[in-house]
Amino acid sequence: MFRKLKFLLICVNAIYFTGYSQNINDALNYSSNTHQGTARFNSMSGAFGALGGDLSAIAVNPAGSAVFNNGHFSLSFGSENKSNEAAILNTTNNSDKKNFTLNQIGGIVTFDNLNGDNNWKKISLGITYNQTKNNFNEYSIFNFTNTNSIDTYFLNNAQGLRLDQISAFENETITEAYVDIGNVYGFAHQQAFLGYESFIIDPNEFSDNNSSYYSNVQSGTFNQTYRSISRGYNGKLTANIGFQYNENLYFGVNLNSHFIDFDNYTIFNETNNNGESGQFRINGIYFENRLSTFGEGFSAQFGMISKISDFLRIGLTYDTPTWYEISEETRQYLETSMIDELDETSLLITNPNAINIYEDYTLKTPSKITASTALVFKNIGLISFDYSRRDYASMKFKPETDMYFSNLNQEISFRLKEVNTYRIGAEILADRFSFRAGYMYEDSPYKSLNNSAIPDNDNNIDDSINGLSLGIGYKLNETTIDLSLVKIESSKYKRLYDTGLTNQVNVKTENTAVTISISTIF
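Structure (tokenized):
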């Protein structure tokens, strides 16, 4: 009766509850970035911490704005092509996804100190936008053979739950029951409800206090297909102030406003020929899930650049953690194909037609330290190197008083580690032309584990990233046109589901990005 009374207070097609479904993949996805900036910045793999003089360089070291001698504006846009090789259980499929991007836009103004006796020579003010991550991506794995069915996902969620907490009242629609159960009990109960209503699982006893269940999917082998489609962008809007002290020291501060716009749609299909004639059984399951994530965050950066000599420069930057406030919504759809005792096949659609709206939560991403050095050869070119370090084990979901987040934070601390990132770039000047190249490498955030408490396919995951870049620039009076080509290779692992069907998909991505920038001084 309590559950029914609570339902009368809510909307039929939207659910507001505090159940959670976040995991380590979410934490890494929201906290990682690929800073897609100007073509000059990209073509040198972002190794600009000791250089400045580029609007995207400010995203690495805020002191870089004070290196400008004049006002500066730039706009950058381009295209990305992601070629994915997705593999699971000895099955591999390839796919491509291409889209156009607005990488960067911004400007900066400088003000000289006309008082010659003052050591503070210059102040700079700037506003810049940089796209930090392109979330557009797709990958699929068709017709792989598995000895594990998705029935284990619904069964694991159901075990230990009372039948009257995962079933509909008399005359209650699927939508009403799904909304009601989500509000009162949460996400796991909803998944158990879907499994029960679709006949994937049944109780050992048809009584309200039953808490043990079995599957109607017969054991054997299963033909499975999995597809993931992602959309959206992450970005950062930066307000910058920089200072030049004497002739050789530059300081800067960034105040950053971040946003996350991420939408992921997964489709799973499974068929089997298991079981015997005259036996009730499930021979097909089709399951859709959609996650929409929206987030806003804040961070700050503090940087310094020193000209040790005309030849040598060094830089140092501290990035504070980013504090995100994140909202999430999920939608689900389920179909089952059933064969009854008369060997007749029927299709059952379990469509909640509802949106789960989760209570907002906070994610604190790791801080970062970047040390940089550059060798500048006047009228010839330069070589630049950046080293960064972030401790992904320090990421925190909040409120930490929540039991789910507390357990997830412990898992993050146990499985993740410090990540080192190396970037090197070079530029050669030839009259009006500039020729550039770069390389970057980033460690995997996962620890190498040999622990029986961790599933085998979760051990020793390599999520490292490496990339090569090339570029060219042409200066025409006060305007410069730059072009870059960047190729980044990465390897990511993602569980199909958090429980039951936990096989991992290994997605090797080759991301090829072309960027054009138009910059002008004023």
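Residues 32-149+217-291+302-322+365-391+422-442+459-521 form a domain with the Porin fold (CATH 2.40.160.60). Residues 78 and 515 are 4 Å apart (CA to CA).
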